[in-house]
Structures are given as C-alpha cells and as structure tokens.
Design brief:
This protein has 384 residues and is of the alpha/beta class. It folds into two domains: 123 residues, Aspartate Aminotransferase, domain 1 (Alpha-Beta Complex), CATH 3.90.1150; 240 residues, Type I PLP-dependent aspartate aminotransferase-like (Major domain) (Aspartate Aminotransferase, domain 2, 3-Layer(aba) Sandwich), CATH 3.40.640.10. The protein contains 13 helices and 17 strands. A seven-stranded mixed sheet has the order 4-12-11-10-7-5-6, with helices on both faces. The chain is globular, with a radius of gyration of 20 Å. The chain binds pyridoxal-5'-phosphate. Pyridoxal-5'-phosphate (PLP) binds next to helix 4.
Length: 384
C-alpha cells in the first residue's frame, strides 16, 4: 500500500488530494517534495507556522520531562501556561479550564453557563460555528453539519447575526448564555458590527445571562488584536480558545470570570485537559506571539491584501471581508475549482461555505511568500 493511501480514513469529510510529509513556517511539502504556501494554516491552527522552532524546542524539552498526569495534579508546565495566558487575557477573565479542542472548550463554556446560572436556554447566531460535538453542534447553525445527528441538545435558539434587535428580543430571564464569534469564520468571514457585541453585553447584563465569545478561530493575534473581542471593547464572561493556542498541538481553553466559578454548582473534567506537553507548547507559542507582536503583522498584511483584492474588480468577486489575516473573498460562484487551481500553483487556501475563498495564513508568513500568494490569488480570481 502506498503511504498516500487514505481509504482507511473514515469518509466523514471531503478529502483533498494532497498528502504532506513536512512543513516549515508557511511552507508545506508534499510526499513528492512539491512546495505549497499554506494560506489556510489548517483552519487557523498555524498562526506560528509549521514546526515553529521555539514551539518544537519546548515540546522536545517537555517530552523528556513529563508528558501527562491527570488534571487533579499540578505540573509546572500547566501552572506556567495558565499564569502566562491570564497575564495577557482580558483582565476580567481570571480562571482557565483546559481541554483538548475547540469543541471541547465550547462544551465547557456551555456547561459552565448552565451550571452557573441554573438556566438552560442558549442563544447562538445563524451562520455561527462552534464545533461538532453534540453540545457545540447544537450551537452551530449549518444544516449540513447537523443533519443525521438530531435530536441535538434542547434549549438552543439561533438569531440572525448582526441583528441587535433580534438578539435583544431573544434573551430573557431563562437565558443561560449568548454565544457568538466576533468574526464568523466557518460561516464565511462575517465581521460583527461595531455595536453588535456591546448590545449583546448590555442585554446579557440586563437579563442575567452570560456572554460567551468563541475566539477559537479569532484568538491569538489572527484578527489584528491578541483577542478579537478587544476591538469591540466588551468584557465577556467567558472566552473559548483552541486552534493556534499551543502552536499546533491539540488544546482547548475556556477562560472565565471568578463569578462564573463561584456560582458553578457542577462537576466537569477532561483526562487530557491541561496536559503538560500541550501546556509547554502553549507557553512557547504565547511567548512567541507576544514578543513578536504577531497581531500587528496580521493587521498590516491583512489590510494590504484586502486592499489589493478589492482593487481587482474581478467579475468573479462579490465582496471582500475580513479583519487582520482572517480574510474572506465571497465569489459569485463555487469556490472549489478556485481552490484546486490555486493548489496547482502552489497556494493552499480553504473554503468558508460553498462560495467564500477563505485565507488564514500563518501570521509569521514571510513577506515574499505572502506577496506571491496575494498575486497568485488575484490572477486566478481575475482570469479563472
Ligand atoms: C474550529 C472552531 C471550533 C471547533 O474547534 P475544533 O477544535 O474543531 O473542535 C469552534 N469554534 C470556532 C469559532 C471554530 O472556528
């Protein structure tokens, strides 16, 4: 059997016809040695690029010391990571629950919201994406992701995104939480309006509900701020993080206020949550992100690129949206042929829904690679 044979991999998602052998920063190498510029960064996992040397060194060192002990025990790796994370997080967030993925971080936030408020209702947004486990999937909007798995968890309602009146009308004294992305990622890169999150905060305060901002994709510098929500000036009760948080190692984190913890009347745990290896990688990733101020690079490169895409006036393009290096180019047609064409020219992009070309390049992408990618995308969009 060839190393590329993937028939054993359960067909639960569309497979792309590429098998990678290694990667370095923004470059991926397939099994034949062809090079690609990774402008999808594995759905936003790779803010620091592939095999970032500082993350690799931290993983190597931690692997020799201690890989894992259960969450009830402390490790120096976990304590250091939590301290580092809280030192850069929005100041009202003072507690961290660690887990292993974005879905798990969202599950945790939903469970904390219910157990801390004694209420059950959860309000999420249309086009929102919060993961694929049963609770997180109940907050996820897209029909194709939900189909075949119903009944999902009861108590979830979806309101149109960026409609402050609809949100205000939906939240009441039975609402445990409102969960929103500040930029909807999987839903096709839709940025929250300036007043939307402040209204969400206000209505949650009025009704005693919790505001959860899902920053699994927008966090860690992606949108031009370390946390996307900083731009809206709101203080959520909880933030969920995952994807790039540990520089490519699986991790999830739910950040909360002390009030969430003091009202929490339940029990929750995860065997691998707070795993020493992931925490060591996470500390290295955070130190790198903060020292290099990666969010500034995201803002600068993102603004240049969006300006260039808007200037194309390509007939295939309906709209260019985004924030920092989270960019969506909405097309008037299906995106898949464009993704294939770009891959054949050494540029890997991803979709966001069926007609949005989504770009989430590593924030460390070298200037020359990013210019090449932006040029190539421009040409492919202009000439097909
Ligand atoms: C990717 C994503 C998730 C789910 O993360 P997984 O690690 O795939 O479980 C949740 N929320 C948002 C906003 C995401 O982008």
């Amino acid at each position: 059997m060839k190393v590329e044979d993937r028939t054993g991999e359960f067909a639960a998602y569309p497979k792309r016809d590429l098998t990678f052998a290694r990667g370095f920063l923004a470059t991926l190498f397939d099994t034949e040695g062809n090079e690609y510029i990774d402008c999808g960064a594995s759905f936003g996992v790779g803010n620091l690029g592939h095999a970032n040397p500082e993350v690799v060194a931290a993983i190597e060192a931690q692997a020799r010391e201690l890989l894992h002990v259960g969450p009830p025990f402390g490790t120096t790796a976990k304590a250091a990571f939590i301290q580092k994370l809280l030192s850069v997080a929005p100041p009202t967030l003072k507690r961290v629950f660690l887990s292993n993925s974005g879905s798990e971080a969202v599950e945790t936030a939903l469970k904390f919201a219910r157990a801390s408020t004694g209420r059950t209702k959860i309000i999420a947004a249309m086009r929102g994406f919060h993961g694929r486990t049963m609770g997180a999937l109940s907050a996820t909007w897209k029909k194709e992701f939900r189909e075949g798995f119903e009944p999902l968890v009861p108590g979830f309602e979806h309101v149109p995104y960026n409609d402050a009146d609809a949100l205000t009308a939906a939240v009441d004294r039975e609402t445990a939480a409102v969960i929103l992305e500040c930029v909807q990622g999987e839903g096709g890169v839709h940025v929250a309006a300036p007043e939307y999150l402040p209204v969400a905060r206000e209505v949650c305060d009025r009704e005693g509900a919790m505001l959860i901002v899902d920053e699994v994709q927008t966090g860690m510098g992606r949108t031009g701020r370390l946390f996307g929500v900083e731009r809206w000036g709101v203080e959520p009760d909880m933030i969920t993080l995952a994807k790039s948080l540990a520089g490519g190692v699986p991790i999830g984190a739910t950040l909360t206020t002390t009030a969430v913890e003091s009202k929490f009347g339940g029990s929750h745990n995860s065997t691998f949550g707070g795993d020493a290896l992931a925490c060591a990688a996470g500390t290295a990733a955070l130190e790198f992100t903060v020292r290099e101020k990666l969010w500034e690079r995201a803002e600068a490169l993102g603004n240049q690129a969006m300006e260039s895409f808007r200037g194309l006036n390509a007939p295939a393009v309906r709209e260019v949206r985004g924030l920092g290096l989270m960019i969506g180019i909405e097309l008037k047609e299906k995106v898949t042929p464009y993704l294939q064409k770009l891959a054949s020219q050494g540029v890997l992009a991803i979709g966001g829904g069926s007609s949005v070309l989504r770009l989430l390049p590593p924030l460390v992408i070298p200037d020359d690679q990013w210019s090449y990618a932006v040029d190539t995308i421009g040409k492919v969009l202009s000439h097909g």
